[in-house]
Structure formats: C-alpha cells, structure tokens
Amino acid sequence: MGSSTSQQEFDYLFKLLLIGDSGVGKSTLLLSFTSNSFEELSPTIGVDFKIKYVTLGGKKLKLAIWDTAGQERFRTLTSSYYRGAQGIIMVYDVTRRETFTNLSDIWAKEIDLYLTNQNCIKMLVGNKVDKESERVVSKKEGIDFAREYGCLFLECSAKTRVNVEQCYDELVLKILDTPSLLAEGSSGVKKNIFKQNPPSSDASASGCCSW
Ligand SMILES: Nc1nc2c(ncn2[C@@H]2O[C@H](COP(=O)(O)OP(=O)(O)OP(=O)(O)O)[C@@H](O)[C@H]2O)c(=O)[nH]1
Ligand SMILES: [Mg+2]
Predict the structure, then answer these.
(1) Which residues pair with 19 in a beta bridge?
(2) Which family does this protein fall into (predicted)?
(3) Distance 155 CA to ligand 1 centre (A)
(4) CA angle 77, 145, 98 (to 5 degrees)
(5) Backbone region of residue 148 per phi and psi (left: phi > 0; alpha: psi in -120 to 50; beta: other values)
(6) How far does residue 27's CA lie from ligand 1's centre (Å)?
(7) Who lines ligand 1 at CB under 6 A?
(8) What is the pTM of this model?
(9) Which ligand is closest in space to the CA of residue 42?
(10) Sheet architecture: strand order including 87-93
(11) Contacting residues for 90 by C-beta, under 8 A, at least 6 apart
C-alpha cells in the first residue's frame, strides 16, 4: 500500500466491511493495517470503524473500514452495515474449522441477504497463519471456497503482519478496476458514507458507532 496522503484530499472514498466469526481476528487485522501494531483486543461490541488514507493505483483514497462484531447477539445490528459497501472482507481462522464452515453456513447467506451492491468485491482471508502447527484448514480449501463464491483469496497473519497490507491492496485495486464501484466512490456520493450514526470524532479516529 502506498504512503499516507493528506487527510483533506482524496479521489475516492470506499466503504469496506470486515465480517466473520467472533475471534477470527477481524479487529486485529484492522489494527494491524491502520496502526502497524499488534495488541490484545476485546471482542467487538456492535460495530467499530477506522479511517485510512492511502495512495494506490495512482489514486488518493480514503478507506472507511467497518469492523463488525462476530458474536451472534449483534447480528441484527451488524447486518445494516452491509449497505453501500464496495468491498467486503470475510475472515476465518485457519486453526478453527468451524470458522471456515460458518462461511457458507452463515456469512455467505448474510451477504446474499444484506449486501445492496451486487458488484461489491469480496475477499476471503484465512488468518493466523503464524500458528502453522495448529492449522486445520488447508490453503487449498480456502482457494476452492473463494473460487466457488467468486472471491479474492489470501492467507495472512494479523500478528506477524504477513500479507496484511496485501489483503487490503488487492481488494482496493479490484474496486478501482470496477467502473460502477468507482462511480459510487467518487466525490458526488462520498458524503453518504456515515449515514448510519455519524462518528463525532475526527477523520483519524475510530470508535464504536452502534448506539
Ligand atoms: N496468533 C495469532 N493470534 C491472532 C491473530 N489475529 C488475531 N489474533 C488473536 O485472536 C483473538 C481474537 O482477535 P480479534 O481481532 O478480537 O477477533 P474478532 O474477529 O475481532 O472478534 P469479534 O470482535 O468478537 O468478532 C485475540 O486474542 C487476538 O490477539 C493472528 O494473526 N495470529
Ligand atoms: Mg472484533
């Protein structure tokens, strides 16, 4: 991912969404990407978000990345955040098989139900590859799932940061390559990104926006 750009100017604003079971590492992946750091996080309550400014494909981009809670009790709330997303990152834990089987049992169904944007780019991410000795889901299984559901695919570690930037880079480059998504992210519509409970803080902040 390119260097950070000025917080005022950008060519496109993209809304990205992280989904997947509780504990797979969604919030850690987001922190790893936005702050280059790793720390022990609590389970997300409702929905969180972070903003990151990047330059990629020759464009200045503002990424609004929404991080949803994986716990079932928040499902009704988090479903409303699929609306208008240009990119969606489905995360599972390569050391916990149920997080992988829940992709088809739960998460792909949520996408079908709640995603308003049919051209939205989907990315499947197998996290925690630093725990290779505990791996139970093979890379091939991830590749096969991604092919079946029409997703991009990468394995990464939010802890060691292996492939973390690549996840976001590949997703964003694909969005940049999709004219209908580009049109949505251009200046004319960027004001709508915080329609659901606008954050009161400044652009570099993060916070819980669920209530
Ligand atoms: N070893 C290892 N641990 C990780 C990695 N990513 C996350 N973790 C750990 O996994 C646990 C859960 O991480 P979170 O980021 O809170 O998971 P989450 O998907 O946001 O969970 P919810 O907010 O409940 O949906 C934490 O203890 C993290 O430190 C990774 O790549 N490797
Ligand atoms: Mg979380």
Answers:
(1) 90
(2) Belongs to the small GTPase superfamily. Rab family.
(3) 14
(4) 60
(5) alpha
(6) 7
(7) 22-28, 40-41, 43-44, 69-71, 127-128, 130-131, 157-159
(8) 0.89
(9) 1
(10) 152-155, 121-127, 87-93, 12-19, 59-68, 47-56, 206-208
(11) 19, 20, 103, 107, 108, 111, 122, 123, 124, 125, 151
- Tell me the per-residue pLDDT of 140-184, one tens digit each, with 9 for 90 and over: 999 999 999 999 999 999 999 999 999 999 999 999 999 889 888
Q: Please calculate the CA angle 74-189-180 and round it to the nearest 5 degrees.
A: 90
**Contact indicator for 87, 175 with CB cutoff of 8 Å:** yes
Q: Which of 38, 41, 50, 206 to mutate to test the pocket of ligand 1 (most atoms within 8 A of CB)?
A: 41
Q: Which residues contact residue 190 at a Cβ distance below 8 angstroms, ignoring those fewer than 6 apart?
A: 12, 13, 62
Tally Cβ neighbours within 10 Å of residue 147: 11
Q: What's the pLDDT tens digit per position in 120-130?
A: 999 999 999 99
Question: According to DSSP H, which parts of the chain are helical?
Answer: 26-35, 75-79, 97-102, 108-114, 139-149, 164-176, 179-185
CA distance 7 to 191: 15
Parse the chain into domains and list their residue ranges: 12-185
| Residue pair 43/21 in contact by the 8 Å Cβ criterion | no
* Phi-psi label, residue 90: left if phi above 0, alpha if psi -120 to 50, beta otherwise: beta
Fold entry, domain 12-185: Rossmann fold (3.40.50)
Output the pLDDT for position 186.
77
